[in-house]
């Protein structure tokens, strides 16, 4: 065992999963969070088998499964005429093929399940409402009362822990905006699938929708490229931003435009992404999740990559001394994140295709059997930490 105690900066999905992963290896941790209470901004979340496999190993999945929904299919459809382009089976198929389930859930369901597990774990101690002055081990010891062997920066895209890692990534606006909102089942239009995840595709934009058991409704995320950004994060969509949204979806099917126009309190999310850079300082600090590799949501892998990072870091720390463990973690996870990002870039091109590229995309998708589509995802959904 390379360390006995760590301080984790950030109590989001990445930080809480790290604390539980460390505890599974006998490593204690302090988790520092500046917010006075934990709450997830946003609504829906997709958890693919590569993430749920980790949550199962940590004993958290049964708590989540009480609330979530396992979609029967993941479908691609046209935003212009609503016709199906391709279907990937999920549900029992996902469990059988990838050895773990695919689920959709409210973000707070995941957050609260992780929180309950952390609060019930004697090796984990949570410090809420605590701002920090620097992320060095000595500075953090003043907050927790204990000097850590390792500092884990799990504090998101706007990480302060990056300051302790020379040549760490920087974040920049991606040119993409997400509008997020929910629709009740009673008000939901007929084109929204009650049993699956659907991505409606169109020129320079797409709309993802899926049901949420927890709210008896649907989560919708409309993503458009080539838009401008305000400074800020999760802003309310005022009249100007609503007009921008409808402009991006001009020419789409009237039912989709209607649900966008009638959206109740949508939030406006400028999407940021991380550059290349170092994830660890070679001695006592490491970055994980969005702090290391914030990426676009075109593969629905943001939470999954943070969950994988946490479990992988604990695995390497249990196998080697600290400096080589950090180096191996960084090398392995950089390669994995780069491949996921490349898949997301491909999806962005395919989802937002125009003109002849759109026609070619539709023809290719119509010729792909579900088994062939599933095989393309084996490397992603079938991934196992430590194999």
TrEMBL record:
Its cofactor is FAD. It comes from the Bacteria. Coiled coil: none annotated. Residues 5-340 form the FAD-binding domain. One of its GO terms (molecular function) is monooxygenase activity. Keywords: FAD, Flavoprotein, Monooxygenase, Oxidoreductase. Pfam families: FAD_binding_3. InterPro entries: FAD-bd (IPR002938), FAD-dep_Monooxygenase_BioMet (IPR050493), FAD/NAD-bd_sf (IPR036188). This is Salicylate hydroxylase. The lineage of its organism: Bacteria, Pseudomonadati, Pseudomonadota, Alphaproteobacteria, Hyphomicrobiales.
């Amino acid at each position: 065992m390379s360390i006995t105690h760590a301080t984790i900066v950030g109590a989001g999905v990445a930080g809480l999963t790290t604390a539980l992963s460390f505890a599974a290896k006998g490593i204690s941790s302090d988790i520092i969070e500046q917010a006075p209470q934990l709450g997830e901004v946003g609504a829906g979340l997709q958890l693919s088998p590569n993430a749920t496999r980790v949550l199962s190993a940590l004993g958290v999945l049964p708590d989540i499964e009480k609330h979530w929904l396992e979609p029967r299919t993941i479908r691609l459809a046209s935003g212009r005429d609503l016709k199906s382009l391709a279907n990937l089976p999920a549900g029992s198929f996902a469990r059988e093929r990838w050895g773990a389930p695919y689920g959709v859930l409210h973000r707070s369901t995941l957050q609260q399940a992780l929180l309950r597990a952390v609060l019930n774990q004697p090796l984990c101690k949570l410090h809420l409402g605590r701002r920090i002055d620097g992320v060095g081990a000595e500075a953090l010891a003043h907050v927790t009362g204990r000097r850590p062997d390792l500092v884990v920066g799990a504090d998101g895209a706007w990480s302060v822990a990056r300051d302790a890692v020379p040549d760490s990534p920087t974040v920049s606006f991606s040119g993409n905006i997400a509008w997020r909102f929910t629709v009740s089942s009673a008000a939901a239009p007929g084109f929204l699938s009650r049993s699956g995840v659907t991505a409606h595709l169109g020129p320079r934009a797409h709309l993802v929708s899926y049901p949420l058991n927890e709210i008896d409704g649907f989560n919708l995320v409309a993503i458009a490229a080539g838009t401008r950004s305000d400074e800020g994060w999760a802003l309310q969509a005022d009249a100007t931003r609503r007009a921008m949204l409808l402009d991006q979806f001009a020419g789409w099917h009237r039912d989709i435009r209607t649900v966008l126009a009638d959206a109740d309190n949508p939030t406006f999310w400028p999407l940021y992404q991380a550059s290349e850079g170092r994830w660890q300082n070679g001695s006592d600090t490491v970055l994980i999740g969005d702090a290391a590799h914030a990426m676009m949501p075109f593969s629905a892998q943001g939470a999954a990559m943070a969950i994988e990072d946490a479990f992988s870091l604990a695995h390497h720390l249990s196998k080697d001394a600290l400096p080589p463990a950090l180096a191996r973690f960084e090398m392995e996870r950089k390669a994995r994140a780069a491949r996921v990002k490349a898949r997301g870039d491909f999806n962005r091109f395919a989802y937002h295709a125009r003109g002849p590229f759109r026609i070619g995309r539709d023809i290719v998708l119509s010729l792909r059997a579900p088994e062939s589509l599933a095989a393309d995802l084996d490397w992603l959904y079938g991934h196992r930490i430590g194999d």
